[in-house]
Amino acid sequence: MRVFVTGGTGTIGAPVVAELLAHGHAVLALARSDRSARMLESAGAEVLRGELADLDVLRSGVAKADGVVHVAFGHADATPDGLARAMDEETAVLAALGAELVGTDRPIVTASGTPWVAGKVATEADPLDTGGPVGARARAVNALLDLAAEGVRSSVVRIPRTAHRDGQGGFAGLLVDQARRSGVAGYPGDGTQRWPAVHALDAAALFRLALESAPAGTSWHAVDEEGDAVLDIATVIGRRLGLPVAAVPEEDFGPFGAIFAMDQPASSAHTREALGWRPTHPGLLADLENLQP
């Protein structure tokens, strides 16, 4: 299969490109810079130059491919307005990619976060929250899944709050960045809230499986660990960086603060059973041991 990939140099996208190539697929990858183009070419991918905002370029990529994996997400500054702009761009991108696939029965796999469900572990059957600061992304993903009725084999891989590699990535990576800036390994809330996690290489394997075999209109969870306590995450960060560990106000984390403070465990039992996905890489706390002071 020739696969058009967006975000192919990111924390998850780079492993997705490698995973696809290792399993016999050809990759056409979007690159917005010379550096990204060089990285993709060295990995063995063909490059299509352009930005996420270049919807005509995205359409041309889809037209040249047998399937699509969309893992790019626009860079948002840490403000409500910046996040809103990124959400608007994501909505336009998914609409353009999906429209190009209508009536073709070709697959597209996109990404979202795992849902938060009050008082329980979220499963693949639970709907995404279409309200709140990232609700627009959920609405765009739902619209893409609805294209299953129009001849698109659409699916979504829901990624946990932390997709990590070498101690970096996701919510835990943001805690690391904040700790380096502030001199405190801080956490919001009381620290008992749980965040699900997955190694980026394991997430990449699930994107490939969904591309190859997921039925139209389905949702899957790239969850290795159902939930690590945020205090445990911050404790490892503090020890590795030689910093004190302390609770800090939600506001210190900008528009993500309220989300960071939520207890949001998630399961992948259905995904493992239905698609045969088996995570094999280190869990989050073990991976954080790779952090350098």
Summarize the structure.
The chain has 293 residues and is an alpha/beta fold.
Structure description:
Strand 2, helix 2 and strand 3 form a beta-alpha-beta unit. Helix 6 (170-182) crosses helix 8 (230-241). Helices cover 40% and strands 19% of the residues. The protein is globular and about 55 Å long. It has 293 residues and is α/β, with parallel strands linked by helices. Residues 3-215 form the NAD-dependent epimerase/dehydratase domain. It holds the Pfam family Epimerase. This is SDR family oxidoreductase. InterPro entries: Epimerase_deHydtase (IPR001509), NAD(P)-bd_dom_sf (IPR036291), NAD(P)-dependent_oxidoreduct (IPR051783).
Poorly predicted runs are none
Topology order in helix (H) and strand (E) letters: EHEHEHEHEHEEHEEHEEHEHHH
CATH topology tier name of the largest domain: Rossmann fold
- Which shape, going by the Cα principal axes? globular
Taking the alpha carbons of the first and last residues, their distance comes to: 43 Å
Number of domains: 2
**Reading side by side through the largest sheet, how are the strands ordered?**
3-2-1-4-5-6-10
Mean pLDDT figure: 95
CATH class of the largest domain: Alpha Beta
Helix content: 40-55%
Per CATH, the superfamily of the largest domain is NAD(P)-binding Rossmann-like Domain
Structural class: alpha/beta
The count of β-strands is 12
Q: What is the annotated CATH architecture of the largest domain?
A: 3-Layer(aba) Sandwich
- Total helix count? 11
What proportion of the residues form beta strands (DSSP E)?
15-25%
- Tell me the major beta sheet: 7 strands, parallel
Domain NAD-dependent epimerase/dehydratase: 3-215
Protein name: SDR family oxidoreductase
Pfam family, one: Epimerase
